[in-house]
Design a protein that fits this description.
There is one protein chain. The protein starts with 13 loop residues before the first helix and ends with a helix. Helix content is 74%, strand content 0%. It is mainly alpha-helical. The relative contact order is 0.21.
């Protein structure tokens, strides 16, 4: 998958495209080097880092984190943000877990949970379109509403009696490798997203709207329709991550998704997706998610408290915001 997907020259000037693409390519190479450096460091100083057991857990955690990043990435591509990613994913996971606990077949329950996530994403998109409010406000309110309703309906009780077939799938690995089945699913979804942004009119419209929404409206693009579809897609991706999470944890907990907001921004931001919209990097988001998972696994193995990971992610996100600002300046973007 190519590193960067750009908007067309008709929406942005050619100078901005080439300037932005060049800077993003350098940033992606730097990200690859940093990630490789951490792997070398932890392989040397974190006992068991390269064991099959640890690598399997690392890749499974990374796959879920990357899907969460994808859910944010698609919304960032149109210049919006989604603070309800965790709430939507948590609701989908909890609904699927409840259905499984009630005796529904695993696949059907998972699909219904994902359908709920899509519906919630579509509702968020409708709210943004109808009210005309900033996506920050709408998704913040939606997150509170969804989480509150979830806690009321479940009385904050988890569903732990999940079918063995669900948790067995979470333990599947490619023969002879520590590669989790979750990673394969994530890569297939990533390939699909790459095709959407590179080869479909919807993907190009999403990027055009993110680059300059006013110009997109003046050029006749159906901005409202694209906003709806984008938030529906975000809900789909978040709900897949939610179902994967309950499989990995062997329980559907009301707290699922409560810590996803920071994670959802970090992977795409450090991977090359512009926070201001108009440019995404599917491959960069994958590498960013792997870096986050590497830090979490490595720090745990060398005995560093998990709170330090939160500190690191915060610093990384601030650096990504600075890079976003630099890219806009180099590319000649206007406020």
């Amino acid at each position: 998958m190519a590193a960067v997907t750009e908007t067309s020259p008709g929406v942005l000037g050619g100078g901005r495209i080439w300037g932005t693409a060049g800077l993003r390519t350098v940033s992606l190479l730097a990200l690859l080097i940093v990630t490789a450096g951490f792997w070398i460091f932890f392989a040397a100083f974190a006992r068991g880092f390269l064991s099959d057991f640890n690598l399997f857990g690392l890749f499974r955690f990374a796959a879920i984190g990357i899907l969460i990043g994808f859910a944010q990435m698609v919304v960032l591509s149109i210049g919006d943000m989604n603070l309800a990613v965790g709430a939507v994913g948590g609701a989908a996971g909890m609904f699927a877990g409840w259905l499984m606990a009630m005796g529904l077949p695993v696949l059907l329950a998972a699909l219904l949970g994902i359908a709920l996530g899509c519906a919630l994403g579509l509702c968020i998109g409708l709210l943004i379109r109808v009210t005309g409010l900033n996506s920050f406000i709408v998704t913040l309110a939606a997150a509170s509403l969804i989480t509150g309703a979830l806690l009321i309906l479940t009385q904050a009780r988890p569903f732990s009696s999940l079918p063995a077939s669900l948790t067995d799938f979470a333990q599947v690995e490619l023969p002879g490798t520590p590669i989790s089945s979750f990673l394969v699913v994530m890569l297939l979804i990533g390939l699909g997203l790459f095709i959407v942004y590179r080869n479909t009119s919807l993907g190009r419209e999403m990027l055009a709207i993110g680059a300059n929404r006013r110009a997109a409206l003046m050029s006749g693009l159906a901005v409202g329709r694209v906003v709806l579809l984008t938030h529906l897609l975000s809900g789909l991706l978040a709900s897949v991550a939610g179902v994967m999470s309950i499989a990995a944890n062997n329980t559907a907990s009301p707290g699922l998704g409560s810590d996803w907001v920071l994670t959802s921004f970090v992977a795409p931001a450090i991977g090359g997706t512009l926070l201001s919209g108009g440019l995404v990097s599917v491959f960069g988001t994958v590498i960013g998610g792997i870096l986050v998972a590497t830090l979490g696994s490595g720090l745990l193995l060398i005995g560093v408290d998990n709170f330090w990971l939160e500190l690191c992610l915060g610093v990384v996100l601030l650096l990504a915001v600075g890079l976003d600002r630099l890219t806009r300046t180099v590319g000649g973007a206007t406020e």
